[in-house]
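Propose amino acids for all 141 sites.
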């Protein structure tokens, strides 16, 4: 099936959160064959897991990333097209007096240039980007 959705860190982390949102999990399951993650999301997941102290929680997260996420979802690169779109958007936002977090801009760029819906629990972090389709899977449709 064709990739339609780019999952943000907030969404791909939902299944292993202390209080998993059942609606997010159901949507991930329903659309799993249509989902990908961005290379910066993989970075955030890897970095976050490796910052934890050694122990059961860290081992469980690392296992989830390596055994579930990595084999289940393609990781899309931050490439030349994404970098160009990101640079234009950063400049536009800056002229408007807004500053978007750099990594959020990378993730938005990857979604935008690949024609994907960005799925996030943090819609406000991405709302300033032009031409970006955003979805929040936290609430039942």
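Proposal:
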């Amino acid at each position: 099936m064709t990739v339609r959705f780019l999952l943000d860190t907030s969404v791909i982390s939902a299944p292993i959160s202390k209080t998993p949102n059942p609606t997010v999990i159901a949507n991930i399951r329903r659309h799993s064959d249509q989902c990908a993650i961005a290379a910066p999301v993989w970075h955030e997941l890897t970095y976050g897991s490796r910052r934890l102290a050694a122990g059961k929680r860290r081992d469980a997260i690392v296992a989830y990333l390596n055994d579930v996420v990595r084999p289940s979802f393609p990781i899309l690169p931050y490439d030349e097209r994404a970098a160009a779109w990101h640079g234009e958007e950063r400049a536009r936002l800056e002229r408007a007096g807004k500053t978007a977090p750099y990594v959020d801009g990378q993730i938005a760029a990857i979604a935008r240039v690949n024609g994907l819906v960005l799925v996030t629990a943090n819609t406000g972090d991405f709302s300033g980007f032009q031409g970006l389709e955003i979805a929040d899977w936290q609430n039942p449709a």
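The two ends are 22 Å apart (CA to CA). The chain has one domain: 5-135.
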